[in-house]
Design goal:
mainly alpha, hpI Integrase, Chain A, two-stranded antiparallel sheet
Length: about 190
């Protein structure tokens, strides 16, 4: 006869889900990890890119496709044509994000993060370029399992640890259900 204690998982150690050879879930970043990454990013532009990704919980492609006109004093507007779900979304400019935006020399008009030379014909920095910059930084600080999506997962996890409900976090991330969001949080 089986009892409830036969199904207790408390004594089982589960391996942490991590990216290995660029596959698997992106690592959640601790405040120490974030500090080390931001200290080594090569410019204020890259710090602004990853700060927007972290403080808004946005996908890197959404951040990179922002126009200067999408950035307000208190809000960032993500246009429907640049979101995965094809729905417009608005994120607040929180106080912690402001210094990163202030340090970056924002162009007068056009793309917020314009590309200098781009073989793919895009007029803004590609997600592959952002990924390469992040990988180089992570090699320098000896941090594995990190990808551009780590900032989005870390945003969700940190909100959950602060007591926000999965339903509210799902709305902020533009997930269709809290079930999807539950996979993000640790």
């Amino acid at each position: 006869m089986f009892t409830a204690s036969d199904f207790e998982l408390g004594s089982i150690e589960l391996p942490e889900a991590r990216k290995v050879d660029r596959r698997g879930q992106a690592r959640n970043l601790t405040p120490e990890n974030l500090g080390a990454i931001f200290a080594e990013l090569p410019s204020d532009k890259w710090r602004a890119v990853f700060a927007i990704a972290y403080f808004t919980g946005s996908r890197i492609s959404e951040v990179l496709s922002l126009d200067v006109s999408d950035i307000g004093t208190d809000r960032i507007s993500f246009r429907r044509e640049n979101t995965k779900t094809r729905k417009p979304r608005v994120a607040m400019v929180v106080d912690a994000l402001r210094p990163f935006l202030a340090a970056y020399d924002i162009p007068q008009a056009g793309h917020l993060f314009p590309a200098r030379h781009n073989a793919k014909g895009s007029s803004y920095i590609t997600r592959q370029a952002a990924d390469l910059v992040l990988r180089d930084v992570c090699v320098m600080i000896d941090l594995d399992g990190v990808s551009t999506h780590s900032f989005r997962r870390s945003f969700a996890t940190n909100l959950h640890r602060q007591g926000y409900s999965l339903a509210k976090i799902a709305r902020l991330l533009d997930h269709s259900s809290p079930t999807m969001t539950a996979r993000y949080v640790e």
